[in-house]
Amino acid sequence: MGFGCGLCGLSLSSSPIASSSSPLCGRAICYAARMLHSGALFDAVALPYDLLTRHPVWERHCALMAGRLPRGAKRVLDLGCGPGNSTVHLRRAVGSGALGGDYAMSMLRRARRRALPVVCLDAGTLPVRDASLDAVTMHSVLYLLRDQPGALAEVRRVLRPGGRALLLEPQAGHLNTARGLARALRTPLWAGVALLWRTMSALYGRFTPERLRAALESAGLRVLTIDETLGGLGLLAVAER
Fold first, then answer.
1. Among 26, 31, 71, 206, which residue's beta carbon has the most beta carbons within 10 A?
2. 102, β-bridge pairs
């Protein structure tokens, strides 16, 4: 269960730092919850986030997502694009029809330095026409959102019939420690990437395959595949309208 603020109703998800026995006062929880559910946190960590997510392992999985686009895709939204690492791969796949969108302005500024077309937007109210996109990608985005059903409903709305939603989200449960340790010893920077993702997802909440499937299906999307990825850290889901 989460721990909430009696002042504003915001809450932290279940995590090592938030529980019903937490000594934190309501005002501290209120502040922490607002930070977690706003662009402020990601504005603050834009530079280290950008550097860490340019690791080759992360880049390969951005390319993997781009490889799951529907055949002939021309119009793609990279929702929650951050500094644009995944948007780069989408543009290689579909050209100028790939657009990035994010809520954190510091992330968008970093993407614009790479000459990427990006816009500031809210995942709950996408400024996109109904049934106008071939695909929407969300790399490490859904788990961060307070209103996950609302965001997925928006994704379904903007997808054309047969369009795809591609999501890479953190997986709940224990890691394969032997595999993770071996990779970290080979590439210390990857250990930093993994630690950042595990820390952030501990604060916000992770997905089991079943929970991710249920979220997508509840939004009216047909799940094609959900595969473990990133050495057990993540889940890659492909769903269709």
1. 206
2. 120
